[in-house]
Design brief:
- Strands 1, 2, 3, 4, 5, 6, 7, 8, 9 and 10 form a 10-stranded mixed beta sheet that branches.
- α9 crosses α10 and α10 runs parallel beside α17.
- The longest helix has 22 residues.
- Helix content is 46%, strand content 15%.
- The termini are far apart.
- It is built from 17 helices and 10 strands.
- The chain has 380 residues and is α/β, with parallel strands linked by helices.
- The chain folds into 2 domains: 164 residues, 3-Layer(aba) Sandwich (D-Maltodextrin-Binding Protein, domain 2), CATH 3.40.190; 154 residues, D-Maltodextrin-Binding Protein, domain 2.
Length: 380
Protein backbone atom coordinates (compact mmCIF):
# COMPACT_ATOMS: atom_id res chain seq x y z
CA UNK A 1 0.00 0.00 0.00
CA UNK A 2 2.69 2.44 0.96
CA UNK A 3 4.78 1.43 -2.04
CA UNK A 4 1.80 1.87 -4.39
CA UNK A 5 1.06 5.34 -2.95
CA UNK A 6 4.67 6.35 -3.33
CA UNK A 7 4.67 5.22 -6.98
CA UNK A 8 1.44 7.18 -7.62
CA UNK A 9 2.98 10.34 -6.04
CA UNK A 10 6.12 9.97 -8.14
CA UNK A 11 4.04 9.71 -11.34
CA UNK A 12 2.04 12.84 -10.42
CA UNK A 13 5.20 14.88 -9.70
CA UNK A 14 6.76 13.77 -12.97
CA UNK A 15 3.66 14.82 -14.91
CA UNK A 16 3.56 18.23 -13.22
CA UNK A 17 7.24 18.74 -14.00
CA UNK A 18 6.71 17.81 -17.66
CA UNK A 19 3.76 20.20 -18.08
CA UNK A 20 5.69 23.01 -16.41
CA UNK A 21 8.68 22.47 -18.70
CA UNK A 22 6.53 22.46 -21.82
CA UNK A 23 4.75 25.71 -20.88
CA UNK A 24 7.86 27.71 -19.93
CA UNK A 25 9.52 29.99 -22.54
CA UNK A 26 13.27 29.69 -22.95
CA UNK A 27 15.16 32.60 -21.36
CA UNK A 28 17.73 34.15 -23.74
CA UNK A 29 21.23 34.20 -22.34
CA UNK A 30 23.19 37.46 -22.76
CA UNK A 31 25.14 35.89 -25.64
CA UNK A 32 21.94 34.82 -27.39
CA UNK A 33 20.34 38.23 -26.84
CA UNK A 34 23.36 39.96 -28.38
CA UNK A 35 23.32 37.62 -31.35
CA UNK A 36 19.63 38.41 -31.92
CA UNK A 37 20.18 42.17 -31.58
CA UNK A 38 23.03 42.32 -34.08
CA UNK A 39 21.00 41.31 -37.15
CA UNK A 40 18.26 43.74 -36.08
CA UNK A 41 20.80 46.59 -35.75
CA UNK A 42 22.37 45.67 -39.08
CA UNK A 43 18.96 45.72 -40.71
CA UNK A 44 18.29 49.20 -39.29
CA UNK A 45 21.60 50.64 -40.55
CA UNK A 46 21.20 52.17 -44.03
CA UNK A 47 23.35 50.79 -46.81
CA UNK A 48 23.52 50.73 -50.60
CA UNK A 49 24.96 53.26 -53.06
CA UNK A 50 25.41 56.94 -52.19
CA UNK A 51 25.49 59.33 -55.15
CA UNK A 52 27.67 62.31 -54.17
CA UNK A 53 27.84 65.42 -56.42
CA UNK A 54 30.86 67.30 -55.11
CA UNK A 55 33.68 69.69 -55.96
CA UNK A 56 36.87 68.15 -57.37
CA UNK A 57 39.15 66.66 -54.70
CA UNK A 58 36.83 67.78 -51.91
CA UNK A 59 36.85 64.71 -49.70
CA UNK A 60 39.78 62.62 -48.48
CA UNK A 61 39.99 59.12 -50.03
CA UNK A 62 40.46 57.52 -46.61
CA UNK A 63 37.22 59.15 -45.43
CA UNK A 64 35.31 57.57 -48.31
CA UNK A 65 36.88 54.18 -47.59
CA UNK A 66 35.94 54.39 -43.91
CA UNK A 67 32.33 55.29 -44.70
CA UNK A 68 32.01 52.49 -47.24
CA UNK A 69 33.37 49.97 -44.76
CA UNK A 70 31.27 51.16 -41.83
CA UNK A 71 28.01 51.16 -43.77
CA UNK A 72 28.78 48.39 -46.25
CA UNK A 73 28.03 51.01 -48.89
CA UNK A 74 29.44 52.29 -52.16
CA UNK A 75 30.05 56.01 -52.79
CA UNK A 76 29.79 57.11 -56.43
CA UNK A 77 31.17 60.62 -56.95
CA UNK A 78 30.38 63.07 -59.73
CA UNK A 79 32.26 66.36 -59.85
CA UNK A 80 31.66 70.03 -60.67
CA UNK A 81 34.21 72.84 -60.89
CA UNK A 82 31.97 75.78 -59.99
CA UNK A 83 28.46 76.50 -58.74
CA UNK A 84 27.20 77.72 -62.11
CA UNK A 85 28.13 74.40 -63.70
CA UNK A 86 26.31 72.49 -60.98
CA UNK A 87 23.21 74.70 -61.17
CA UNK A 88 23.08 74.44 -64.96
CA UNK A 89 23.26 70.67 -64.83
CA UNK A 90 20.41 70.47 -62.32
CA UNK A 91 18.37 73.00 -64.31
CA UNK A 92 18.84 70.81 -67.38
CA UNK A 93 17.12 67.96 -65.52
CA UNK A 94 19.94 65.96 -63.91
CA UNK A 95 18.55 63.78 -61.09
CA UNK A 96 19.54 60.91 -58.83
CA UNK A 97 21.99 62.75 -56.59
CA UNK A 98 21.74 61.98 -52.89
CA UNK A 99 24.17 64.61 -51.57
CA UNK A 100 25.22 67.86 -53.26
CA UNK A 101 27.76 70.33 -51.83
CA UNK A 102 26.81 73.85 -53.03
CA UNK A 103 28.18 77.15 -51.76
CA UNK A 104 25.67 79.12 -49.68
CA UNK A 105 24.45 81.52 -52.37
CA UNK A 106 23.92 78.67 -54.86
CA UNK A 107 22.17 76.70 -52.13
CA UNK A 108 19.89 79.69 -51.59
CA UNK A 109 18.71 79.35 -55.19
CA UNK A 110 18.16 75.58 -54.83
CA UNK A 111 16.00 76.20 -51.75
CA UNK A 112 14.04 78.91 -53.53
CA UNK A 113 13.34 76.56 -56.45
CA UNK A 114 12.23 73.72 -54.17
CA UNK A 115 15.06 71.43 -55.30
CA UNK A 116 16.06 70.22 -51.81
CA UNK A 117 14.58 67.87 -49.23
CA UNK A 118 14.19 69.00 -45.62
CA UNK A 119 16.62 67.31 -43.22
CA UNK A 120 15.57 65.08 -40.34
CA UNK A 121 17.63 66.53 -37.48
CA UNK A 122 16.81 63.50 -35.32
CA UNK A 123 19.08 61.50 -37.64
CA UNK A 124 21.91 64.04 -37.26
CA UNK A 125 23.01 63.96 -33.61
CA UNK A 126 26.49 65.22 -34.58
CA UNK A 127 25.05 68.63 -35.48
CA UNK A 128 26.12 69.51 -31.93
CA UNK A 129 29.74 69.57 -33.18
CA UNK A 130 29.22 72.60 -35.41
CA UNK A 131 30.29 76.10 -34.38
CA UNK A 132 27.20 78.26 -33.79
CA UNK A 133 28.40 81.10 -36.04
CA UNK A 134 28.03 78.79 -39.04
CA UNK A 135 24.45 77.79 -38.19
CA UNK A 136 21.06 79.46 -38.61
CA UNK A 137 22.27 81.79 -41.37
CA UNK A 138 20.08 83.98 -43.62
CA UNK A 139 20.67 81.44 -46.39
CA UNK A 140 18.87 78.68 -44.46
CA UNK A 141 17.30 79.72 -41.14
CA UNK A 142 17.25 76.82 -38.69
CA UNK A 143 19.33 74.72 -41.10
CA UNK A 144 16.17 73.15 -42.44
CA UNK A 145 17.95 72.04 -45.62
CA UNK A 146 21.70 72.32 -45.08
CA UNK A 147 24.68 71.34 -42.95
CA UNK A 148 27.98 73.32 -43.25
CA UNK A 149 30.77 71.15 -44.69
CA UNK A 150 33.88 73.31 -45.20
CA UNK A 151 34.85 76.83 -46.15
CA UNK A 152 37.49 78.88 -47.91
CA UNK A 153 38.30 82.58 -48.22
CA UNK A 154 39.19 84.54 -51.35
CA UNK A 155 42.56 86.09 -50.61
CA UNK A 156 45.93 87.24 -51.91
CA UNK A 157 48.83 84.83 -52.30
CA UNK A 158 52.36 85.88 -53.16
CA UNK A 159 55.89 84.66 -53.74
CA UNK A 160 57.84 85.88 -50.72
CA UNK A 161 61.24 85.99 -52.45
CA UNK A 162 60.11 88.06 -55.44
CA UNK A 163 57.97 90.41 -53.36
CA UNK A 164 60.97 91.08 -51.11
CA UNK A 165 63.12 91.79 -54.17
CA UNK A 166 60.51 94.32 -55.33
CA UNK A 167 60.23 95.87 -51.87
CA UNK A 168 56.53 94.99 -51.65
CA UNK A 169 54.66 93.65 -48.66
CA UNK A 170 51.08 93.01 -49.83
CA UNK A 171 48.53 93.50 -47.05
CA UNK A 172 45.31 94.38 -48.83
CA UNK A 173 43.36 94.59 -52.09
CA UNK A 174 45.40 97.60 -53.23
CA UNK A 175 48.01 95.06 -54.32
CA UNK A 176 45.53 93.93 -56.99
CA UNK A 177 43.63 97.12 -57.89
CA UNK A 178 45.99 100.06 -57.25
CA UNK A 179 47.96 100.39 -60.49
CA UNK A 180 50.90 102.01 -58.67
CA UNK A 181 51.40 98.68 -56.90
CA UNK A 182 49.91 96.08 -59.25
CA UNK A 183 51.85 97.27 -62.29
CA UNK A 184 55.12 96.75 -60.42
CA UNK A 185 54.25 93.05 -60.73
CA UNK A 186 53.01 93.42 -64.31
CA UNK A 187 52.94 90.15 -66.20
CA UNK A 188 53.35 88.17 -62.98
CA UNK A 189 49.91 88.80 -61.44
CA UNK A 190 46.71 86.83 -62.06
CA UNK A 191 43.14 87.03 -60.81
CA UNK A 192 40.43 84.40 -60.78
CA UNK A 193 38.34 83.98 -63.92
CA UNK A 194 35.23 84.57 -61.83
CA UNK A 195 32.97 87.64 -61.88
CA UNK A 196 31.68 86.71 -58.41
CA UNK A 197 35.17 86.88 -56.91
CA UNK A 198 36.74 89.74 -58.87
CA UNK A 199 33.75 92.09 -58.52
CA UNK A 200 33.49 91.24 -54.81
CA UNK A 201 37.19 91.98 -54.24
CA UNK A 202 36.80 95.30 -56.10
CA UNK A 203 33.77 96.19 -53.97
CA UNK A 204 35.64 95.52 -50.74
CA UNK A 205 38.64 97.55 -52.01
CA UNK A 206 36.24 100.45 -52.72
CA UNK A 207 34.58 100.15 -49.32
CA UNK A 208 31.31 98.86 -50.83
CA UNK A 209 29.35 95.94 -49.42
CA UNK A 210 29.90 93.04 -51.88
CA UNK A 211 26.20 92.21 -51.51
CA UNK A 212 25.21 95.62 -52.87
CA UNK A 213 22.11 95.77 -55.04
CA UNK A 214 23.07 99.06 -56.71
CA UNK A 215 23.70 99.04 -60.44
CA UNK A 216 25.88 102.14 -60.00
CA UNK A 217 28.10 100.22 -57.57
CA UNK A 218 28.59 97.53 -60.20
CA UNK A 219 29.62 100.15 -62.75
CA UNK A 220 32.10 101.70 -60.27
CA UNK A 221 33.65 98.29 -59.60
CA UNK A 222 33.82 97.55 -63.32
CA UNK A 223 35.74 100.78 -63.90
CA UNK A 224 38.20 99.86 -61.12
CA UNK A 225 38.73 96.44 -62.70
CA UNK A 226 39.25 97.94 -66.17
CA UNK A 227 41.93 100.32 -64.90
CA UNK A 228 43.84 97.52 -63.13
CA UNK A 229 43.48 94.93 -65.90
CA UNK A 230 46.56 96.09 -67.93
CA UNK A 231 48.71 95.18 -64.91
CA UNK A 232 47.38 91.60 -64.86
CA UNK A 233 48.83 88.71 -66.82
CA UNK A 234 45.59 86.72 -67.01
CA UNK A 235 42.23 85.74 -65.63
CA UNK A 236 43.16 82.29 -64.39
CA UNK A 237 41.21 79.85 -62.24
CA UNK A 238 42.55 76.60 -63.65
CA UNK A 239 46.36 76.63 -63.55
CA UNK A 240 47.41 79.35 -61.13
CA UNK A 241 48.35 76.84 -58.41
CA UNK A 242 50.84 75.30 -60.81
CA UNK A 243 52.10 78.73 -61.94
CA UNK A 244 52.64 79.90 -58.35
CA UNK A 245 54.41 76.65 -57.49
CA UNK A 246 56.73 76.97 -60.49
CA UNK A 247 57.52 80.63 -59.71
CA UNK A 248 56.00 81.91 -62.97
CA UNK A 249 53.35 83.94 -61.12
CA UNK A 250 54.36 86.05 -58.13
CA UNK A 251 51.03 87.49 -56.97
CA UNK A 252 47.49 86.18 -57.32
CA UNK A 253 43.90 86.70 -56.28
CA UNK A 254 42.70 83.21 -55.44
CA UNK A 255 41.24 80.80 -52.91
CA UNK A 256 42.83 80.09 -49.54
CA UNK A 257 42.76 76.35 -50.24
CA UNK A 258 44.65 76.87 -53.50
CA UNK A 259 47.29 79.10 -51.89
CA UNK A 260 47.76 76.46 -49.21
CA UNK A 261 48.25 73.81 -51.89
CA UNK A 262 50.64 75.97 -53.92
CA UNK A 263 52.84 76.56 -50.88
CA UNK A 264 52.82 72.86 -49.99
CA UNK A 265 53.76 71.98 -53.57
CA UNK A 266 56.57 74.55 -53.58
CA UNK A 267 58.03 73.05 -50.42
CA UNK A 268 57.80 69.54 -51.82
CA UNK A 269 59.56 70.76 -54.99
CA UNK A 270 62.29 72.29 -52.78
CA UNK A 271 61.78 75.78 -54.18
CA UNK A 272 63.71 78.64 -52.57
CA UNK A 273 60.52 80.59 -51.89
CA UNK A 274 57.20 80.23 -50.11
CA UNK A 275 53.69 81.18 -51.18
CA UNK A 276 52.38 83.43 -48.43
CA UNK A 277 48.63 83.63 -47.83
CA UNK A 278 47.24 87.05 -46.88
CA UNK A 279 43.73 87.75 -45.68
CA UNK A 280 43.33 91.34 -46.95
CA UNK A 281 43.04 93.95 -44.22
CA UNK A 282 39.82 95.36 -45.71
CA UNK A 283 38.07 91.98 -45.55
CA UNK A 284 37.31 89.19 -47.98
CA UNK A 285 34.70 86.78 -49.26
CA UNK A 286 33.92 83.73 -47.16
CA UNK A 287 32.60 80.75 -49.15
CA UNK A 288 30.86 78.12 -47.06
CA UNK A 289 30.01 74.86 -48.79
CA UNK A 290 27.10 72.83 -47.44
CA UNK A 291 25.81 69.28 -47.58
CA UNK A 292 22.24 69.13 -48.89
CA UNK A 293 19.92 66.33 -50.03
CA UNK A 294 18.43 66.70 -53.51
CA UNK A 295 14.70 66.25 -53.97
CA UNK A 296 15.36 63.29 -56.32
CA UNK A 297 17.67 61.49 -53.84
CA UNK A 298 17.06 57.73 -54.07
CA UNK A 299 18.80 56.90 -50.77
CA UNK A 300 17.62 59.42 -48.19
CA UNK A 301 18.43 57.37 -45.03
CA UNK A 302 21.96 56.70 -46.32
CA UNK A 303 22.33 60.40 -47.18
CA UNK A 304 21.52 61.33 -43.57
CA UNK A 305 23.97 58.69 -42.35
CA UNK A 306 26.68 60.22 -44.57
CA UNK A 307 26.06 63.74 -43.29
CA UNK A 308 26.18 62.60 -39.67
CA UNK A 309 29.35 60.58 -40.42
CA UNK A 310 31.02 63.67 -41.92
CA UNK A 311 30.19 65.64 -38.77
CA UNK A 312 32.40 63.37 -36.66
CA UNK A 313 35.57 65.23 -35.72
CA UNK A 314 38.16 62.94 -37.29
CA UNK A 315 36.24 62.54 -40.56
CA UNK A 316 35.72 66.28 -40.89
CA UNK A 317 39.36 67.08 -40.11
CA UNK A 318 40.72 64.90 -42.91
CA UNK A 319 39.55 67.35 -45.56
CA UNK A 320 41.25 70.30 -43.83
CA UNK A 321 44.49 68.34 -43.60
CA UNK A 322 44.22 67.34 -47.26
CA UNK A 323 43.54 70.71 -48.90
CA UNK A 324 43.83 73.33 -46.17
CA UNK A 325 40.12 74.10 -46.03
CA UNK A 326 38.53 75.97 -43.16
CA UNK A 327 36.38 73.87 -40.89
CA UNK A 328 33.10 74.80 -39.16
CA UNK A 329 33.32 71.70 -36.94
CA UNK A 330 34.62 72.34 -33.43
CA UNK A 331 35.15 68.62 -32.79
CA UNK A 332 37.55 68.49 -35.77
CA UNK A 333 40.04 70.99 -34.37
CA UNK A 334 41.93 68.46 -32.23
CA UNK A 335 42.66 66.39 -35.37
CA UNK A 336 43.77 69.24 -37.66
CA UNK A 337 47.50 69.59 -38.26
CA UNK A 338 49.20 72.60 -36.59
CA UNK A 339 50.44 74.04 -39.91
CA UNK A 340 46.85 74.15 -41.16
CA UNK A 341 45.29 75.38 -37.94
CA UNK A 342 47.82 78.23 -37.59
CA UNK A 343 47.16 79.65 -41.07
CA UNK A 344 45.06 82.79 -40.42
CA UNK A 345 43.82 82.85 -44.02
CA UNK A 346 42.32 79.42 -43.42
CA UNK A 347 41.26 79.93 -39.79
CA UNK A 348 40.74 83.68 -39.32
CA UNK A 349 40.77 85.09 -35.81
CA UNK A 350 37.56 86.49 -34.32
CA UNK A 351 38.31 90.05 -35.45
CA UNK A 352 39.10 89.02 -39.04
CA UNK A 353 36.03 86.81 -39.14
CA UNK A 354 33.86 89.91 -38.65
CA UNK A 355 35.25 91.33 -41.92
CA UNK A 356 34.29 88.32 -44.02
CA UNK A 357 31.28 88.38 -46.32
CA UNK A 358 29.19 85.52 -47.62
CA UNK A 359 27.75 86.34 -51.04
CA UNK A 360 23.96 86.36 -51.37
CA UNK A 361 21.92 85.30 -54.38
CA UNK A 362 21.93 87.99 -57.10
CA UNK A 363 18.70 89.15 -58.72
CA UNK A 364 18.25 88.25 -62.38
CA UNK A 365 18.65 91.93 -63.34
CA UNK A 366 21.95 92.35 -61.49
CA UNK A 367 23.24 89.04 -62.79
CA UNK A 368 22.53 90.20 -66.31
CA UNK A 369 24.22 93.57 -65.74
CA UNK A 370 27.27 91.98 -64.16
CA UNK A 371 27.53 89.49 -67.02
CA UNK A 372 27.46 92.32 -69.55
CA UNK A 373 30.11 94.30 -67.65
CA UNK A 374 32.29 91.21 -67.25
CA UNK A 375 32.17 90.48 -70.98
CA UNK A 376 33.17 94.06 -71.79
CA UNK A 377 36.06 93.90 -69.32
CA UNK A 378 37.44 90.68 -70.78
CA UNK A 379 37.23 91.59 -74.48
CA UNK A 380 38.84 95.04 -74.18
Amino acid sequence: MIVRDLLRLALVLAAVSLVSACGKKEEATPAKAEAQAQPEAAAARPTGTLNLYNWNDYIAPETIERFEKEFNAKVVQTYFSDNDEMLAKLAAGATGYDIIVPTSNAMELLIKKGDLQPLDHALLPNLKNLRPEFLNTPFDPGNKYSVPYAYSTTIIGYNDRHMKELGLDPKGWEAIFDTNIACRVKGKLTVLDSPDEVFSAAFIYLGIDPNTTSADDYRKAAETIRKAKPCWAAFNSSSYIKELTAGNIWLALGYSTDMFQANRNAQEARQDFRIVSVLPAQGAVLSVDNMVIHKSAPHVPLAHAFINFMLEGRNSAELSNLIGSGNPNQAAMQYIKPEVKSNVAVFPDAESLKKLHQLRLLSAELRQLRGQLWTEIKIR
